[in-house]
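INPUT
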Amino acid sequence: MGFNLVDMAMTELHANGGRMTNQRRLILETLSHYADHPTAEEIYERVRLKNRALNLSTVYRTLRWLEQRGLVNTRVFEDERCQERFDPIIKEDGMDHYHFRCSQCNQIIEFSTQYLENIKSQYCFEYGGLVQKASLILYGTCASCTSA
Amino acid sequence: MGFNLVDMAMTELHANGGRMTNQRRLILETLSHYADHPTAEEIYERVRLKNRALNLSTVYRTLRWLEQRGLVNTRVFEDERCQERFDPIIKEDGMDHYHFRCSQCNQIIEFSTQYLENIKSQYCFEYGGLVQKASLILYGTCASCTSA
DNA sequence: GTCACTGCAAAGGGTTTGCATCGGA
DNA sequence: TCCGATGCAAACCCTTTGCAGTGAC
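OUTPUT
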């Protein structure tokens, strides 16, 4: 919980003459307290419970700002062509995480795997170049939907 | 080349009382002759060189129709949040393919790997459920952009 | 001749932007 | 005080939809 996303943002802000506003703090807190992968709209709704005056464009601007600084990740799931979902990047355990999405209940499950490293080096060996990042999403039916 | 996408579509059409129109044929041919992963707009422009009267909505309708029948795949790359790219599904070699995207020249390189199977079974072992599909995109710099 | 498909134009949904104002440092 | 951040409204972009007309079978 918390992932000290607020702290990391603070550091970034101070290093670049930015300002920690009430809106930003609320958005950051919301992002780090919810483990699901909310859309901009969902973040907006959640924050508005605490600050009615917030505007959607502020949410987007904050998310893009975080994205540029590598503090949040952005993802589009297949069944939501034009909608992005956001999640804070956890740097603590050092292990990247990937996603499983249940096409029945739309739940998102995070998982890790060591095999991505194999894939990356296999790719580089065969095609050359440099792999900086990997996005892997598994689609299927989750355990509880399968048994139901 | 060709992947007989037109033939496969024909079969589908005949099985469901559909009609092979000039527009559909041109869209199908364009899709299968170009190996890159075009957007709807790009397909539209290419087909319009041969048929000026074509409308973008026809392109979308055809693409969705193909998608529903499992004849094309749809993908959104990270640097193009709201734009889909389409590619015909090749069933010939039976091996799924994944994508590398160069963030410099935006080229898309397709590759295969046997490790995805490991990841799938690892996931199922740990979390249960059923994995039907995997989407993997590597982001980085391609060989020619690295050496340049 | 039927009915599926098309073109057109308008709407839709998510995201971005210009600008005047606000407020943190 | 100064300048970065916000709210608002309008714009943007990609995609979808309703409807009347067209053309494949």
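end of record. Strands of chain B lie at 72-76, 84-88, 98-102, 108-111, 130-141.
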